Every structure is written in C-alpha cells, then in structure tokens.
Amino acid sequence: MKKKWFPGSRYQDIWNSYSEEPVIFINALSLTHGGSFTVLKNYILSFIEQRPDWRYLILQDTIDESFDFGNIGPNACILYCGEKKMGLVSRYLWEKRWLGVVCKSLNCDIYFGPNGVYHPNAALPQCLLVQDPAPFILRARSFKIAIRNLLLRKNWSNGVKQASCMGYTSNFMRSLVINYAGCEESNYIIAYNGIDRSIQETAKQPFLPFVEREPFILGVSTINKHKNFETLMHALSILRKKTGFEHYNLKIMGRLLINSYYEFLKSEAVRLGLKDAVIFELNCPWENIAHAYKVASLFSLTSLCESFGMPALEAMAHGTPVVVGNSTAVPEICGNAAVLVSPNDHEALAEAWAKILSNESDYLKMQNAGRSRCLEFDWHKTVAQWIDIFENILSK
Predict the structure, then answer these.
(1) Which range is least confidently modeled, 1-15, 210-224, 352-366?
(2) What is the pLDDT of residues 151-160, one digit of tens each?
(3) In angstroms, what CA-CA distances link 126 with 107, 166, 218?
(4) Residues 56 and 44 sit within 8 Å (Cβ to Cβ)
(5) Cα–Cα distance between 107 and 227 in angstroms, integer?
C-alpha cells in the first residue's frame, strides 16, 4: 500500500479500518541505494513476518520505484511526504516542522529511526539504529559533509541520552558513539546485520574445492577511497613475484561512488605493472558478484571504515576463505573464521594469501569455519531483538 501524506492527514486516511494494534513509524527519508536500502528492506520484511498484526508506516520523500520493498501486505504503508529528493538541510527542516505532526496525527506508537537520529519533536518512544562510522573516522571532503557529520554526531549523542533504545550494527559502532556522548545508554542492543536467506541456503550447499577455483583474489565493496583497494593491488604485486603465484589476478567489484578514486586505482595498476592483472567489474548485477564469490580463490577486505563488513560474510557463504584488515568492525564480524592483518600492510597481506593458497588442508578448514560463522548472522534474530524492545515499551 502506498499513500501520499499532506498536512491534515489522519489515521483513517491511511488505513481502511480502525485497529487497536500498535503503529510502528519507520523514518526512511535518509534512505539511499545500496547498503542502507538492503538493511531497511530486510528489517521491514522481517518485522512484518514476525508481527504481521502490527501496522507499519514507512516514510519516504517521494515516489521512487527503484526502492522496491517487495510484498509488504495490507498492514504496511509506504507514506510519501511529497518533498522530492530532500537533501540534508531540507530534510532537517522538514522533519523539524512536520515529523512530530505526522507521528501524532497518524496515531503512531513507536518511532524507529534507521539513521540513528533523535527527534525531540516526535513525542513518542524512539528506537534508533546507528550504522555509519564515517562521521567519527573519515575526514570530511567538503564543508557540507563536515556539517552533516557534526549534526549526526550530536544527534546520536542526544539519542544515547534520551532514546528509549539505541541499536548498533557492531560493538565497534557503539564504542564510537558512546565515547563521543560521554555516557552510556539506559537501554541498547547490538543489532548485527543478517545475511539474506538465499545466501544462507548457498552456505549450506557444497563449496567449490580449491583445485577448481580460479586464480584471482576478490575484493567487493563500493568504490570509495576509504575502501583502500590500493593495498590489495600492492599485495598482488608482491604475491605475483612468489613462485607459483605469477598468474594470479585481482578482481574488484562494486558500485562506483568516487570516480576520481577509480581513476587513481587504474593509474596505480599501471604504475605497479598490473594493468592486465587488475580487473574492474563495476555496477554489475548481483548474479555476477555471486559467481565471483563462488569461484574466487580468496576474498580480502582492507577497508578503513566499516560498521559491519557484509561482503566478508557473503564470501564465507560461498566457501571463499577471507583475509581482512584488523581494524573497525570487521574483526568482530569475522570472528575466528578469517585471517587478520593490518589493513595497510601489503606485505603481510601477500604473505597471508600465499600461506592459505599453499595449504589445501588449511583452505578447507577456513571454508568450514566461514560457513559456520556466516550462518550466525540472521535477520530473524536481529529483528526479534527489536520486537522484544517494542513489546516491552508497549506494555508499559
């Protein structure tokens, strides 16, 4: 169900019948394509699956058919506020003026904010999810981003002090927020992302053995500077000088975000003599990425800013051993199923690659460890934590 909100809208304008069941308000105004949409879609579908009797209002700025949440059923409504593609400032002003009005006039019982921002004008219990470490870690590339980062840090800090419950995608993410806030929350959960059910099923199938895999290292993530793909390229240069590894390549896959960084990577490949050994496959469909996970010899992620690290789990689900950087949230998510190295140490990275690729027994152990680890992350379990929180709030 999809509806247009306008000043004066009431509960009966949204729903066809009255219900005493609670209304969960989900603010998706900050939704973007990529990871944030994938996370929110899984949240919404799992909420509806586990509590189909509740009603859900999902607030978006304008009609965008590319944001397809799938079958949300009659008890969920996409509510369009009518402001087209709101930027940070315009969204802030709109929320300051109207968000409290929307929540009150539509009889909402709980506010769920997947961008972690606390809204003092929304006079109902707020449950907030923080999943972006960039405002604490990355240097702002512009004045606009610096202002955005400052606003997010302050709002997250307010959430720590006033929200009914704060949720974080990792303990690492929580430590950044509470250190900035200077205090701890009255209530919080670590809400790890889950892997999709189709990927869970993949993890339960037989893996392609080492001898049948293709000789390339795989890196999957958005093409952004903090993803640190150049470390993978330097490590490949070292690996190819070792006997038996001269024919190995590096495949980089993901959504292009920063074109200047992409151009830098291409020039760096030429400088290192790897022009034909570094393969870019950008903005390609999931089927291509899934196939690469399935046949790659190894996967590596040396990102300098991660609140979770989903590609590492996806690689594990396809039986591909994982070597990752020992910083941010990635070690927490990978546990003992991955080999950890310093994210900027290309020599240590190349050595780890060579060691795994030289021992089929260790390779198999890592495949099995990765299978067990990735299956621990389940959307049903994550959302069930929030449902327990919501039920506790509603019972008071």
Answers:
(1) 1-15
(2) 899 999 999 9
(3) 14, 9, 40
(4) yes
(5) 43
The per-residue pLDDT for range 229-239, each reduced to its tens digit, is 999 999 999 99
> Alpha-carbon distance 180 to 160, whole Å?
10
Give, to the nearest 10 degrees, the angle between helix 259-271 and helix 229-239: 10
Is the distance from CB of 113 to CB of 126 less than 8 angstroms?
A: yes
The residue to which tokens 């960039």 are assigned: 134
β-bridge mates for residue 59, sequence order = 27, 79
Give the Cα separation of 357 and 41 in Å (integer).
37
b/e 208-247 (16+ beta carbons within 10 angstroms → b)? bebeebeebbbbbbbbbbbbbbbbbbbbbbbbbeeeebee
Domains plus CATH for the chain? 2-194+378-394 (3.40.50.2000), 197-374 (3.40.50.2000)
Which residue do the tokens 């996970």 mark? 293
Angle at 227 (CA atoms; ends 225, 231), nearest 5 degrees = 95
